[in-house]
Write a structure and sequence with these properties.
Layout (H helix, E strand, L loop, with lengths): L1 E4 L3 E10 L2 E10 L6 H20 L1
Antiparallel strand pairs: 1-2, 2-3
């Protein structure tokens, strides 16, 4: 994973191959956020579960 620093944020980049497609993912967080990474991850997982549930209906 490579990291790039700017004045306001740190950006991390990684690549992931799924099937025949290679995705380049940029991850960054605002320094002035009030949510922790763990809270954001839990929120993301909850949204993902809701989306999967709707697709099955």
């Amino acid at each position: 994973m490579e990291q790039t620093k700017t004045m306001e944020q740190v950006t991390s980049t990684f690549t992931k191959k799924i099937g025949q497609t290679i995705y380049k993912v940029n991850v960054f967080f605002a320094e002035n956020t009030i949510a922790t990474f763990e809270e954001e991850l839990k929120r993301y997982e909850a949204q993902k579960k809701q989306l999967e549930k709707r697709r099955k209906e």
